[in-house]
Amino acid sequence: MSYSIGEVSAQIGLSIHTLRYYEKEGIMPGVQRNESGIRLYETKDIEALEFICCLRETGMGIADIKQFVNHATTIQERLERLREQRQNVQEQMARFKKYEAMLNRKIGLYEDMAQGDSDEKHHE
Question: Taking the model in full, what pTM does it have?
Answer without folding.
Answer: 0.77
